[in-house]
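Supplementary Data S3. Sequence and structure tokens for construct A.
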Amino acid sequence: MPYVLISTQIRLENGPTNVGDEYSDPAVMNYLGARKTTMLGNNFSEYYVDDPPRLVLDKLEKIGYRVITMTGVGQTLVWCLHKETE
């Protein structure tokens, strides 16, 4: 899976950081040290890490991911990363 989407609330810019959904690559989630959680009332799971987005971006860069876009949506910051596959 060559794409990763991470996000955080502006007021939580020091973490936690949402690093994936229930369909994310388990190897990448394990590398990031992410924990899979389901919020009360949701019928889907998400992966979170306690690290701020900057550290997550640094870790993902080390394994070949590059930011392709970033935006703010309301009070949320979102980064989309891509990894070239051979």
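Construct B, processed identically:
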Amino acid sequence: MVKEELQQFLRTLSFTSIEINTILSIIDSVSFTKGKRIPDTLEGKIVQDADRLDAIGAIGIARTFAYGGAKGQRLYDSNETNNSSLRHFSDKLLKLRDVMHTRSARGIAEQRHAFMENYLKQFLSEWNFSE
């Protein structure tokens, strides 16, 4: 949704200008790839944490391979300069645990990070066995 359309929609829900600006600021700060901006508000930090938690763990692994498959990426390439679904873990996913803002998100991220590390160990063990 375009920013202006979103503002208009929020006005129809009787949000104030301050609330609309807060919501737009939160939306702008969520993305991991748009920069390392830390949201100004607790609400923004919670939304950013939720977005990042969604990218890791079992669901994050599934999303990574689904996206990679849709884009025709290889599962894994031992040449680290080539793009692969597994490389996305080191490029982004394994970094997310350390950038959580809230205590509860850090606890969830710790569990999901450990799951991903175990998954990667198993994946590489099986991959290397099959080569």
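Residues 4 and 56 are 32 Å apart (CA to CA). The chain is about 65% helix and 0% strand.
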